[in-house]
Amino acid sequence: MSTQPDPTSRPDEEHDGTARMSFFEHLVELRTRILRALLFIGCGVAVGLLISDKAYRFLAKPMVKALDDAHVSNKLVYTSPMGPLTLYITVGVYLGLVLALPFVLHQIWLFVAPGLYRHERRAVASFIGFGTGLFLAGAAFGYYLALPMTLKFLLSIPGPFTPMISINEYFDMSMIVLAGLGLVFQLPILIFVLALFGIVTPQFLWQNFRYAILVIAIVAAAITPTTDALTMLVFMAPMIVLYLLGIGVAALVVRGKRKRAEQLSGAGAA
């Protein structure tokens, strides 16, 4: 008697053998990954603390340039004896987390990958890669364009004042701008996930474009540290572009889902 292959089996999408581990073995594996992730974070923070001075000097360049352009002293100040130490520790910790992030994500990947199919692994890997790239692109946009324009506007406000910029306050403001734009640049990823689950469609996104502009304006006003319209437009412009890019991503997702549905229906008819 011949044995026919199971039509539901998908040899190209088999789980790894580690997916059949027991519950206790999963806990041991999880503990191992967590310990290694913490080790990488500790090493990253140690390196971050060693180079925190150089890192802050790089971060402070937009502020120094803005002060130079305003023809005032470009020396940043601190108002507490603990100010510099607190700053360097904070910069070191933040930088350490960024340095350790790829290794931590790799440990997460090693834990979840054995339980995924091959196409799911590719999707998750692409998701992590594009998400990280978009975050870095948003932070770079903030550092090279949004932050300098914001500082230029703030220092141009007239009055009988002498700017004395605190190192800690500048660091807090710059982190809000850079991290905020990094998160904003995740918009195409968010739209991709929503389209993948059928929550939104390209037609829905396009038809509600005017409302999206309103939401974008509100978000831009929330993350923009100034009140002038020009700086707010600088924050809004990439968000609008990202929304339009998200419509294109949603269209690709819908097209792919429709193509797979047609293939499945054709296979069922055959």
Q: Ranges with pLDDT <50 over ≥5 residues?
A: 1-15
The domain count comes to: 2
Q: What is the residue-mean pLDDT, rounded to a whole number? A: 83
Radius of gyration: 25 Å
End-to-end distance: 24 Å
Shape: flat
Tally of individual helices: 9
Helix content: over 70%
Main sheet: strands, sense, barrel:
none
Order of helices and strands: HHHHHHHHH
Which range does the strand content fall in? Answer: under 5%
* Secondary structural class: mainly alpha
Q: How many distinct beta strands? A: 0
Summarize the structure in words.
This protein folds into 2 domains: 22-156 and 164-182, no CATH class; 186-265, no CATH class. Helices cover 76% and strands 0% of the residues. It has helices at 23-50, 52-69, 83-112, 118-155, 167-184, 187-196, 202-207, 209-223, 229-269. The protein is flat.
Mind sketching the topology for me?
Layout: H1 23-50, H2 52-69, H3 83-112, H4 118-155, H5 167-184, H6 187-196, H7 202-207, H8 209-223, H9 229-269
